Amino acid sequence: MSRTMVSIWVYICRLPAGFPTIMCEIPDPGDWGDAAAQLCGLLPLLGFVGAAPSCNHECNRACWTSRFNVNTDYENEWPVTGVTRKFDLEITEVDEWVGPDGHIKKGAMLINGGYPGPLIKADWGDRIEVTVTNRLKVNGTSMHWHGFHQLNSNSQDGVAGVTECPIPPGDSRIYSFLATQHGTSWYHSHISSQYANGIVGPIQINGPSSYPYDTDLGVFPISDWYYDSAEHIGVPGSPPPSNNILFNGMNVAPNGTGGEYARLKFTKNKRHRLRLVNTSADNTFVVSIVGHNMTVIETDFRYDVVIKADQEVDSYWLNATLSSTPLCGASLNPHPAAIVSYEGADETRLPTNIGLPAIEQFCEDEVTAKPLTSRTAPKADFTNTKVDTLAVTLDVKEVNKGISKVLWAVDGSAIDVQWEKPTLEYVVEGNFTFPRQANIIKLPEAAKWSFWVIQNNSPAPHPMHLHGHDFLILGRSRFVANPLVDPGRPIVFDPAVDGPHLKFDNPTRRDTTVLPPFGWLVIAFEAGHNPGSWVFHCHIPWHMSQGLSVQFLERADLINSVMPNLMPELRMKCDDWGDYANKDPGFKMRKIDSGI
């Protein structure tokens, strides 16, 4: 859960397809307002004995406890509260579900009977325990906790065919992990393109903040919504336009025949924290609130913002504007919006001011944030060693006469995992002869920086997500409006030309960023301290399904020791999956794609 809390001023919040990193510089107290400035004398005392657990309040959000605060580097230390927060998620399937906008969705997969799933909310340092029960008709499932590093708990990462076998219908699994990070994120199934059918939900881990606020409005997911099932979309070509855009699971139908607008409530002259998460399968947005500025305090493919309610008591549109290029996703809803109403406003009237046109981003996400807890990648290691390049290509193969299959390949190989024998099972057995299509990249060394150039040889942008780590974004090529025309061919990374412009000293770091169309991206992360198999993949579910992923197998020699009960846990759940798969000779759930 890459966590970068930043103190930059913005008017537009960029929210590309897909998901708070490390914290960023605390603004000058003079910018906080008179009331907050009076309390700023507390800040130098952070971390000293005597600070109570309740030190986090409206004017000093930087404090958390006597030991932990906004300056704590949670990749190295974190609180352990001894509290376990328990949640139950039941996954069900409805062939024709009347969705939030009044229209029927085919093949809906729901959590606890609704969409999105329930909020998982905890405090920094709590243990989270989630029981996932599969009530789907024939599909296996799994659950991934997006952005959580899962330090020494790779088995809880929830990737079918990599860290576990799928949970079969009628069975359940308990995931248990420590919230070593804080901020905003989400959870979703991680098997084929399944999450696009509705298996998603928000996560809020309370912790310190780099900016004061009065009210936390909570997580506000924004997502594309398709009336057809994910299995019938995006194969073999690009996904069609979404039928609607939902805000916290709500919106009116584009044709006005059903549903209602999602609403947020502001209190005049108060600062409100809003946790924006894009849980879309394909669409990207520029988010704005008419007449209001946003201060970004946390950024990844989730954006936490603080908004001062300093306008007249009224209602205002919260707009999610799509890019003009369909390569960033398109929708049949031309003006997706929710409503922000001040207390005392007449909520029977819709807002009238639609606001100024949004800034066109062409899928480009924000990479100028400066993390407060600094990381510097050694430039000499990049310059003096061979840097690995991952080439992303699109391939269409004829699998049967007249039937084609789209494959997204990395270095010529589209990933294809084995549900019945996940990567971790190979490792605990001491078998390191992996199938080529597992796309395993071994990282055996302790504490070594790993540099990667990802070269996109296709015109499609890809939101690339890394499990188990945050990565430093050293640089990337430009984004263009129409890559088929400009440049019309790949922009190839040139170390001699592009190398001097890379940023090694505390650049933005995230767990997700966009690989430009026909362009390149250079990232670095410090491998060696989190044993496990961590996937690095495009977060568009159909691209995952079609193979756009690799696995970084990190410190395989330590996996058994940091997870001592791994083998019996794996074997028991994989036996459950095998029993289910072997009961039906026809086996209705045959794997027809990458599996992840």
Automatic annotation (TrEMBL):
<feature type="domain" description="Plastocyanin-like">
    <location>
        <begin position="219"/>
        <end position="303"/>
    </location>
</feature>
<keyword id="KW-0439">Lignin degradation</keyword>
<dbReference type="InterPro" id="IPR045087">
    <property type="entry name" value="Cu-oxidase_fam"/>
</dbReference>
<dbReference type="InterPro" id="IPR033138">
    <property type="entry name" value="Cu_oxidase_CS"/>
</dbReference>
<keyword id="KW-1015">Disulfide bond</keyword>
<protein>
    <recommendedName>
        <fullName>laccase</fullName>
        <ecNumber>1.10.3.2</ecNumber>
    </recommendedName>
</protein>
<keyword id="KW-0479">Metal-binding</keyword>
<feature type="domain" description="Plastocyanin-like">
    <location>
        <begin position="98"/>
        <end position="209"/>
    </location>
</feature>
<feature type="signal peptide">
    <location>
        <begin position="1"/>
        <end position="24"/>
    </location>
</feature>
<dbReference type="InterPro" id="IPR008972">
    <property type="entry name" value="Cupredoxin"/>
</dbReference>
<keyword id="KW-0186">Copper</keyword>
<dbReference type="GO" id="GO:0046274">
    <property type="term" value="P:lignin catabolic process"/>
</dbReference>
<dbReference type="Pfam" id="PF07731">
    <property type="entry name" value="Cu-oxidase_2"/>
</dbReference>
<dbReference type="GO" id="GO:0005507">
    <property type="term" value="F:copper ion binding"/>
</dbReference>
<comment type="similarity">
    <text>Belongs to the multicopper oxidase family.</text>
</comment>
<dbReference type="InterPro" id="IPR002355">
    <property type="entry name" value="Cu_oxidase_Cu_BS"/>
</dbReference>
<dbReference type="InterPro" id="IPR011706">
    <property type="entry name" value="Cu-oxidase_C"/>
</dbReference>
<dbReference type="Pfam" id="PF00394">
    <property type="entry name" value="Cu-oxidase"/>
</dbReference>
<dbReference type="InterPro" id="IPR001117">
    <property type="entry name" value="Cu-oxidase_2nd"/>
</dbReference>
<keyword id="KW-0560">Oxidoreductase</keyword>
<dbReference type="Pfam" id="PF07732">
    <property type="entry name" value="Cu-oxidase_3"/>
</dbReference>
<keyword id="KW-0325">Glycoprotein</keyword>
<feature type="domain" description="Plastocyanin-like">
    <location>
        <begin position="420"/>
        <end position="555"/>
    </location>
</feature>
<dbReference type="InterPro" id="IPR011707">
    <property type="entry name" value="Cu-oxidase-like_N"/>
</dbReference>
<keyword id="KW-0732">Signal</keyword>
<dbReference type="GO" id="GO:0052716">
    <property type="term" value="F:hydroquinone:oxygen oxidoreductase activity"/>
</dbReference>
